[in-house]
Amino acid sequence: MNQKEALQISREVGEEVRRAVAKIAGTKESKETIGIGKDGTPTKKIDKVAEDVAISILKNYDVRIVSEEAGVLGESDIYVALDPIDGTFNATRGIPIYSVSLCFSKGDLGSAFFGYVMNLATGDEYYTINGNAFKNGEKIEVTKTEDISECDAIFYYPFRNYGFKRLRIYGSAALELCFVAEGAMDCFIDIRKGAGKGFLRIYDVAAGLLIAQNAGAKATDVEGNDLSGKRFTMDERMTLVVANPNLHQKLLELIK
Fold first, then answer.
1. List of domains in the chain
2. 3-class DSSP state for residue 88?
3. Lesser CB count within 10 Å: N end or C end of the chain?
4. pTM of the prediction?
């Protein structure tokens, strides 16, 4: 499978998921808890609607799906980290920041070759092609901000004043990484620890990370460690610091 084929598949998934969730987003029905996903968290109805549509499409292709609710499906050498709804809280309340996210890989972040994120509320799409990152077909790049005091940061969760110009949390990691990729925000930081090894899951961030890196960002964990070995499995977890290369090192030193 090549990048062009992955883009076509991702667009099909994005368009069909968007059509399906538009019918219930922001409604009482969308908030109903209908079970527990393979990740151990409650599954809302809107999550299940989105995942069912996405999987029904992806099953037509030779891929191994790693998804929040359904777990691992298929036996292919091509992995797809799928988050059918990243930003479920926003989606159930009609806040227009929630997305579908797909990342294609040979099994880890280091071998990821295509990432795609669609804002399901607006239809804006972000993706990677030939080492570049795009939003709605236009090439995007990270900011060149170097001064912490001029930095607009997305941060989960600060425990003191770090001196940033602005702090924001939007509730969809996939889209927030794309905001960094397009230069709308300067950095994304997540220092949360889950089971001692980070809170973020591979399907939350794989696509957004690849898009941000192709837009010029540097990405590591909070200790400055490379992320390429992070596996496309249900139990993978991570912390994140993502920003342009000049700002990145300053952020690592700042949050120690």
1. 3-139 (3.30.540.10), 148-254 (3.40.190.80)
2. helix
3. C
4. 0.95
